[in-house]
Amino acid sequence: MAIPITVLDCDLLLYGRGHRTLDRFKLDDVTDEYLMSMYGFPRQFIYYLVELLGASLSRPTQRSRAISPETQILAALGFYTSGSFQTRMGDTIGISQASMSRCVANVTEALVERASQFIRFPADDASVQALKDEFYGLAGMPGVIGVVDCVHVAIKAPNAEDLSYVNRKGLHSLNCLMVCDIRGALMTVETNWPGSLQDCAVLQQSSLSSQFEAGMHKESWLLGDSSFFLRTWLMTPLHIPETPAEYRYNMAHSATHSVIEKTFRTLCSRFRCLDGSKGALQYSPEKSSHIILACCVLHNISLEHGMDVWSSPGTGPVEQPPEEEYEHMESLDLEADRIRQELMLTHFS
Question: Which keywords label this protein (predicted)?
């Protein structure tokens, strides 16, 4: 490790920061199997990221200007997929642990800057109808354009006095709101909510709620579990189904909503920095929020490039704080209840 560090320091002394880009690691020098085992993604995907993020990672103002975009991306992918700054990984690409940390920060910000390019609801009517058709084909639930849920990601305690990030299990976390389509592609991601907020409060305060309340995607709805309030645009299951139609509705709801549960498992198994197996994210809430969002961007990019979203080995259910039931509040929205009753009468009777 001493030799690469000495070379880097000499280059900076001789040429000044920003005048040379050192290539410590060549993709062409290793096998595809090695890239998948170490960084979680194939060669062509990594080349695409270099092309996509190269300009941002070559900014003269960044401390890691002497490290090539390719090396920065490998360092970040290594962290996202392993959850730790491994010395072995730093040795492989020829940089120190401190440099790896800077690379992760640079790549994370570059991905966050492009989040709206890859995480978005379809805007045209044809694409919206295609969403409805795909969800209907899954379990017979009509009008659905997405499934919504929250997932907690553990973070280090911001400080001893701040309890806003302590969830009901007594752990510090961010409560992340996400919506996905039937393929597992994320259409909304909000990663900044403190872990003490219940799922229904996160949704109520979210920009997603504001958009739907303002009339976005009329005559369509999302599916959410019983931790959310029933809304005119959000269908939830019945707490105690009684009629055959209500049972059929709940079964179709459960089968459809399982798509996002599977998506959460995939995210956490592919990006081990999110699953807590190597400990909580050791960053501030803001930086942790950006890392989660960056992983979500990579998730969607991998889908666009034909990578199987379900190909990552499953890790079982994502352990989350226990949910609370809110069925006693559903009747407060009489219009939402009418819509759900009409849905059951028309499609599940």
Answer: Cytoplasm, Hydrolase, Metal-binding, Nuclease, Nucleus
- Rounded Cα distance, 15 and 66, in Å: 10
Is the pLDDT score of 46 beyond 60?
yes
**54-to-46, 47, 72, 105, 158 alpha-carbon distances in Å:** 11, 10, 10, 14, 32
**β-strand 173-180 against 186-194: which pairing, if any?**
antiparallel
Domain definitions of the chain by residue range: 25-56+65-114, 119-283+330-346
**pLDDT at residue 213, rounded to an integer:** 93
Provide the strand spans (E) within 123-216: 144-154, 173-180, 186-194
pLDDT digits (tens, 9 = 90+) for 94-121: 778 888 889 999 999 999 999 999 999 9
DSSP H/E element including 234? strand 234-235
pLDDT by residue (tens digit) across 127-144?
A: 999 999 999 999 999 999
The pTM of the whole model exceeds 0.85: yes
